[in-house]
Every structure is written in structure tokens, then in C-alpha cells.
């Protein structure tokens, strides 16, 4: 089986993970991001510049980013859904914005109270600000394999949304299985269509592990040439549409998978696991990661 020689991991635990967990202190977030970078992660989503009314866990993102002390080669990104958020991120030196929409009209209406087309229109000033300041923009598309409100999502709609975001100026699109309902055959069907129109280096995968399919889905995506994977240390996060379900696939599990496939992600698995243990202690919970729990049992 031909897998990519190198796989880039985008660590989303400090944002997508923690925003779905109990609040932790600014210092604990800073320590987490510093520890992730020390473990070898080079792409870390560090915060979100969103309304604290709706996402109180991210209210201190500016202070977190100001407090981080990582090597220059570490790329810190932040979620910037609108111009106000993008301007605030720019003020603290963020060099990569993240914007998000969905491939489901029902999802966008329920979550951001607008249509897919309207959500994309809102990104234009964010993209313009990014271009004027040499900032990269990464696009997220939620519900690519299923929606909690409408059920099935047509791959053609995913393709259309991806094309629009790339045309606007996104350098990469992260394909999100937001509720974790995808299976390898669904992943294959979606990517088979997308890769006819979009090069693999412009696509990433972002799987939630609600039904335990994330690693199998990642393996299928790797087989098809995708070389960027989103994940969250310790499996941080949750799925608001499936109570008690796990959220993001755990970075430790992804690293272990890659190592087993002969792909070196250049990440220290033990240091990564320790970063997860520390934040889980702050959250008063156990890691969701199977690999992390296995390493913890050996200590």
C-alpha cells in the first residue's frame, strides 16, 4: 500500500478540543501549547477569536497567544469567523486564520443562522485582511459525511463548498466529519470525487471518533494520498450532538498509527502523552486516547 512519505498533523486540542470541555486557566492553556510544541508538533490551533458569550472557553485567546513561548518554526493558527475576530488575531501576531462553514444547509442555519452561501460571503473581508497582511487562511468544512439535522450529505455539495473556499484564497480545506458517522467506504467515495477536481495537497481530514471509526477513516484517507490530519491531544473535545461520545481523534493514537505504517511524524510520543496527561488532570478527566492510557499504565 502506498502511503505518503510525510504526514503533517494539525493539533486542534487547544481550540476545538478545549472549547468543548470545562474551562481551564490561561496558564494551563499556555502550558499545554508549549508542551505540544516541545513534543514536536509544528501546526497548533491556539485559540478562537469568537464571542465570549457563545464560547466562553475561548475568551482568553489573546492572552493565551501572548503567553506562548515556542520556536519560530511552530505555526500558530486561530479561528477567525469574522472581520472583528480576524483583526483581534492579527493584533497578537497570528499568521494563519481559520474560517469555517458546512456542507449542510440545515447545520449552518442551526449553528450560525445563515445559509452556506451567506456564511461564505461573510469570509470575504477576513480573506482581504489576510491577503493584505501576508496571513494564510485555512478553511474548515463541517458535516462532510453526515449532518445531525438533515442526515446524509451529498459529496457534490462538499465539492462545491471546497471549490468556493479555495477560489476565495484558502490554501487548504479541512474536511470535517463533525459527528463522527463516517466509515472508510464513505471516506473513499467522498475523496474519489474531490480528488478528481482538487489536488491532495490542498485537502486535510478532521475526524471525530464518536463511533470509533476515526483511525480507520484516516488510514483510508492516507491510502488515497491525503497527507494532513487534524487531531487533538488526549482526544480532547466532545460531540454536542451525541452525549457522552468522544470527540476529536486523539493525536497520540494518530502518531502511533503513523509510526506503525512506517511514517515518521517527528513527534515524541511520550512527551505528547505527558502533555495530554497534564491537561486532563486540569480537566479532572481521563484521556480518551487508547495509546495514552496504555502508556500511562506502564508508568
Automatic annotation (TrEMBL):
- Which InterPro entries does the entry mention? Aldolase_TIM, HMGL, PYR_CT
> In what residue span(s) does the Pyruvate carboxyltransferase domain sit?
7-273
Q: Which SUPFAM superfamilies match?
A: Aldolase (SSF51569)
Query: Looking at its record, which EC class is this enzyme?
Result: lyase
Pathway entry: Metabolic intermediate metabolism; (S)-3-hydroxy-3-methylglutaryl-CoA degradation; acetoacetate from (S)-3-hydroxy-3-methylglutaryl-CoA: step 1/1
Assigned keywords, A-Z: Lyase, Metal-binding
Q: What is its EC number?
A: 4.1.3.4
Query: What are the recorded GO MF terms, alphabetically?
Result: hydroxymethylglutaryl-CoA lyase activity; metal ion binding
Q: Name one GO biological process term.
A: L-leucine catabolic process
Q: Which Pfam families match?
A: HMGL-like
The superkingdom listed in its UniProt entry is Bacteria
Query: Is the keyword Nucleus in the record?
Result: no
The UniProt similarity line reads: Belongs to the HMG-CoA lyase family.
NCBIfam families, A to Z:
PRK05692.1
Q: What is this protein called?
A: hydroxymethylglutaryl-CoA lyase
